[in-house]
Please model this.
Amino acid sequence: MHFFETSFGRTEKRRILLTKIFCNGAVGYGECTTGEKPFFSHETIDTAWIIIKEVLAPIVIGKNWAAPSEVGQWFKQIRGHQMARAAVENACWDMTARANNIALYELLGGTRKEIPCGVSIGIQDTPEQLLEKIRTEVDAGYRRIKIKIKPGWDYDIIKLVRQTFPDITLSVDANSAYTLADIDLLKSLDEFKLLMIEQPLSHDDIIDHSQLQKQINTDICLDEPITSLDITRKAIEMKSGRIINIKLGRVGGFSEAIKIHNYCHEHNIPVWCGGMLEAGIGRSHNIAMSTLPGFSLPGDVSASKRYFKEDIIEPPVTVNKDGFIKVPQVPGRGYEPKEEYIERITVRREVFSA
Model:
């Protein structure tokens, strides 16, 4: 498969941390979506393993809940470690849906029977390689193309893409590669009629973004700093951006994601589902979340085959020729884990019981 490159590095392989929750015959799955190194956030697969093992599992084991949102409340005492928390909480949501014989998206309050899909295309070795990949995804029906940018791979590249594909819905993602010193460059991107510029400035900033949004016409989308409803509220009040990217792992799981979605929906702020190169478990959680009514823009929820030779679920996630994923109408996430395959590739496990 092809590498995936952003402004902070290139990914060619992924270690996946899964959680599996058992209760009264029902089973739920979660996936920790952090990377192996602390580049996107402070978390890594190895720190998440420790937090789940030593902190989260002891909190959850042996407890009952009327609604899985209670699990998120139990974790409120923990500062940070949202991706580890999400891996456990989301498994509890999946298990609850299965135990009640309803689809996960319905338990979340979702209403859509299909979701529009976009793709995120990393920085390539050559402009020609980028154009080739964009052509492949456009031909596959994806409804929004997002390309990664960084200093030296920005204005001229976007200009080339826009000249080649004048009619596509196009956005760019900087992953915090710029500062206010680059404001003239960022202003120049207005000419390309972009859907958004995602996270152009520092990963933890909402102040400079507010200054930038006042000076450019293109909508800013906030990503990395959106870790809670409280931060979301402050960013919206400061007019730091006009679009919010909700990532399940980054905000700590479904409970907080729903709160952020509801607040943005009430304030007419479009939201969409961001991706973290998830395997099938995390991808199916993203599908369920994207059915909420405020998810009005195509997210980074794409087909399994875009990233993995073999996904860990069946059936694999597929996108139809019109750029939509049909939401499974069965209990739980709607995609079954390939237990034998997962067992074969597992290198470490821990089991906890009451």
